[in-house]
Task: structure prediction
Amino acid sequence: MQEEYQYYMDQCLEIARAALTEGNPPVGAILVFEGKVIGEGQEAGKSTGDITNHAEILAIRSAIKNGYAAQLASAQMYTTHEPCIMCSYVIRHHHIPEIVFGTSVPHVGGLTSQFSLLSTEHVPKWGTGPKVVSGIRLSDCIALNEQFVKTLNKI
Result:
């Protein structure tokens, strides 16, 4: 399983690097169903001026556009960052059962913040929260974040 996590997270890191070159936070996300990437998203909130263009939401939109809406409830999401509160709501709405991410986002993360939408069971319609695996390719994800922070400090 660890090799599989690494393999897909490598793809997310590639997408995250592309996001960084466009001035966005370095976040890349993919959805995998039965070993096939069915959707991918590259963070684009800053470059588009649309805060809803987070990598995880774009990956879900991509999977739906590719004809995989019905498979979301059986897919795995891989992302370089812990899904934020907004993305976590969308993930729970679509009943995505497994989330694999690199680095945590403590203040607005959908798991580690005080607004833990990924683990809450207080919304009956959502059912049980997804399995969450964190810390995959952590040092690479942190290094990309540090590069982004350096670019912010130059502005």
Notes: The CA atoms of residues 106 and 113 lie 5 Å apart. The chain has a mean pLDDT of 96.
